[in-house]
UniProtKB/TrEMBL annotation:
Keywords: Signal. InterPro entries: Beta-barrel_OMP_2, OMP/PagP_B-barrel. Coiled coil: none annotated. This is Outer membrane protein beta-barrel domain-containing protein. Residues 1-20 form the signal peptide. Residues 19-168 form the Outer membrane protein beta-barrel domain. Transmembrane segments: none annotated. The keyword Signal applies. It comes from the Bacteria. The keyword Cell division does not apply.
């Protein structure tokens, strides 16, 4: 059994090295302009206005070319999201740190620009809040849409919008939404 597993690993590694042009790995980082939207943004029976926060994201990418003009790009990102809540007397910030895993279909519009669309699963890793929400949800599902501009074969910039489809808290109808601008490098 060990020989079969070892043989499979060697064959898999050899096939990856022979198709190295088809798989590129990279890193990226950038800014988030994050907000929380919903119909039930009430905190301790008082109404607050919510405002977006500026935060960050960073992580790893893999671009897997399937055909000319089409690729799949899974990513592993740390992303901070949330909002600031204000009324006449108080101000609170709800900042959530997620491990986000978008899996994007990349449609090349030309040699430099691609349209990126796909789902994203996010897992709550950290929470810094001054908001009296009962509990934040530990899993969030969303959709991603954006554009990638390849400046060179290795350097790229991206702009995208992430819309949360599931609630960010257990006691309110609040969803995350994030505009992301990032730059990265593919090896």
């Amino acid at each position: 059994m060990k020989k079969i597993i070892l043989t499979a690993v060697v064959i898999f590694a050899a096939s990856l090295s022979s198709q190295a042009q088809l798989v590129k790995f990279g890193i990226k980082a950038g800014l988030n302009y994050a907000n929380q939207t919903g119909s039930d943004i009430n905190i301790t029976a008082a109404n607050y206005d919510n405002e977006a926060i500026t935060s960050y994201h960073a992580g790893l990418i893999a671009e897997i070319t399937l055909t000319e003009g089409f690729a799949i790009q899974p990513e592993l990102l740390y992303s901070t999201q949330g909002a600031t809540y204000k009324n006449a007397a108080e101000e609170f910030t709800n900042k959530l740190g997620y491990l986000s895993i978008p899996v994007l279909a990349k449609f090349s519009l030309n040699k430099s620009i691609s349209l990126d669309l796909g789902p994203q699963a996010s897992f709550l890793l950290s929470e810094r809040k001054n908001v009296n929400f009962k509990e934040s949800e530990t899993f969030e599902f969303g959709v991603v849409g954006g554009l990638t501009l390849n400046i060179t074969k290795s350097i790229f910039v991206q702009g995208r919008y992430v819309l949360g489809l599931t609630e960010a808290t257990q006691d309110a109808t609040v969803k995350n939404s994030v505009v992301q601008v990032s730059a990265g490098f593919k090896f």
